[in-house]
Amino acid sequence: MTGERAPAWRGGFGRLWTAAVVSRFGDALRTAALPLLAARLTDDPFAIASVTACGYVPWLLFGLLGGAVADRVDQRRAMWAADTVRGLLVAAFALAVGLGHASIPLLLVLAFALTTLQTLFDNASTALLPALVDGQALGGANARLMTGQQVAGGLLGAPLVPLLLTAGAFMPFAADASTYLVAAVLVASLRTRPPHRPPRPAGSTLRTEIGEGLRVLWRDRALRAVCVSTLLCNIGMGALIATLVLHVTRWLHAGTAGYAAAMTAYSVGSIAGGFLAQRVARRTGRLRALLVAGTVQTAALVLMGTVRQLGALVAGMLLLGAMGMVWNVNQVTLMQQRAPESMTGRIAAAFRTCATSGAPLGALLGGVVAGAVGLNGPALLAAALFGLAVTSLIPVRRPDVPVVASPDSVTAGGVPR
C-alpha cells in the first residue's frame, strides 16, 4: 500500500478523537453499571437480560433510518445534538437513581432511547471523518480512534465502576452524563466543509434513499463481500461471548479469575491491534488485511475450542482482540474510501445493522450449541463461521479491486466492481 500517512491532529481530528474517547469512557461506565443496577432491582433473569437486549433493538429498527438521516443533515450538528440529548437523559436518570426512583421499566426506556440516538450519532461520525482527514490518512485516523476508544472503555472505564458505586449507585451515570456533554461541546466546536450532496429528486423520501444506499452497497463487489463476511464473523462472536463465562468456569474450571484474565487479554489484544492495523494494510492492502485477520482469528478459535487449558484461552482471546481491531480498522476505512460521499452514512448504517443483527442471532445459536454439543461447541461454531467469512472474501482479494480509490473515481463509478 502506498500514499498512506498519519492524520494531522489539527484541523478538527484531535477534537473529534478526544470527544470519541471521552464518550466511550462514559459508555463503559454506564454499560458496566446498568446490569449491576438491574440485578439490585430484580432477581428475574429475563428482566435483567431485557435491559441488555434494549441496547440492540434500536439498531435493528432504526439503524438504516439513522444512516439516511445522517446523509441529509449537517453531521457535526447531528452529533453534538444527539450527545446533548443523551447527556441530559443520563443526568436525569442519575438523579432518579440518587433519589431512589430507579426501576426496571426506567432502565429499559433509558437503554432504548440512548441506542436510538446512537444510530444517528455513529453513522454521522463515520460520514464526518473524511471531511476532517485527508483520504490518505483515513486508515491511520480510524486506527487512532478505535485504539483510543478501546483504552478508554476496555482498560479504564469498566474497572472504575466498583469504585464509583461505593460513592453511590448514581455515580457511574452522573459521570457518563458529563462525558456526553463534554463530547457535545468538542464536536460543536468543529469547523468542517459542507458535504457534497447532489440535489435530491423531487418527492424523494427517506425510504427511497435507504433503498438507494443499499443498492449501491450491493453492487460494489468489495463492499458486498466485506459486509457479508462481517455478518458471519459477528454471528460467531455473538455465540462465543454469550457463552464465554460457561466456557471458562465450567469447561476449563478456571473460575471468575480466569474469566477476568480472558477479557483482559481481549482488551490488550485490541489495543495492540490498533498499532498493527496500518502496518498489515501497508504490506497486504486492505482486503488482504481482512483475509489475514480472519485467518488468524479462525486459528485462535480452533485453539480455544480444542485445547482445555487457560493459557490457550488467554492466547486465543489476545489474538482475537488484536486481529479484530485489524479487521475493524480496515473494514471501516475501505468503506469510507469506496462509498460515494453523499451515501457514506447509509452505507455505514448497513454495515452496523448487519453487525448488530449478527450478535443476538449468534448468542441464541451459541446457547443451543453449548447445550447440544458441549461448552466448547460455541468456540468451534465461531471458528467455522470465521472460516466461511474468510472464504467469502477470496474472490475479491485480487488487485483489480483498488485498495485506495480517489473520491472522484468512487463517485463516478470508475472503480472496478
Helices and strands, with pairings:
Elements lengths: L12 H29 L3 H9 L3 H16 L2 H24 L5 H29 L5 H29 L4 H18 L17 H14 L1 H31 L3 H30 L1 H21 L3 H29 L5 H29 L4 H17 L13 H6 L5
**Could you give a short account of the major beta sheet?**
none
CATH architecture of the largest domain: Up-down Bundle
Query: What gross morphology would you assign?
Result: globular
How helix-rich are the residues, as a percent range?
over 70%
Q: What is the number of helical segments per DSSP (H or I, 4+ residues)? A: 15
Domain unit count: 2
CATH class of the largest domain: Mainly Alpha
Number of strands: 0
Structural class: mainly alpha
Order of helices and strands: HHHHHHHHHHHHHHH
Looking at this structure, what is the CATH superfamily of the largest domain?
MFS general substrate transporter like domains
For this structure, the CATH topology of the largest domain is Growth Hormone, Chain: A
How far the N terminus sits from the C terminus, by CA atoms, comes to 19 Å
Low-pLDDT runs of 5+ residues are: 399-417
- Rounded mean pLDDT is 82
Q: How many whole angstroms does the radius of gyration measure? A: 21 Å
Could you tell me the strand content as a percent range?
Answer: under 5%
Walkthrough of the structure:
- It is a single chain.
- This protein has 417 residues and is mainly alpha-helical.
- It folds into two domains: 1-138 and 151-190, Up-down Bundle (Growth Hormone, Chain: A), CATH 1.20.1250.20; 213-402, MFS general substrate transporter like domains (Growth Hormone, Chain: A).
- Helix content is 79%, strand content 0%.
- It has helices at 13-41, 45-53, 57-72, 75-98, 104-132, 138-166, 171-188, 206-219, 221-251, 255-284, 286-306, 310-338, 344-372, 377-393, 407-412.
- Helix 1 runs parallel beside helix 6 and helix 11 packs antiparallel against helix 14 (377-393).
- The radius of gyration is 21 Å and the shape is globular.
- Mean pLDDT is 82; it is low at 399-417.
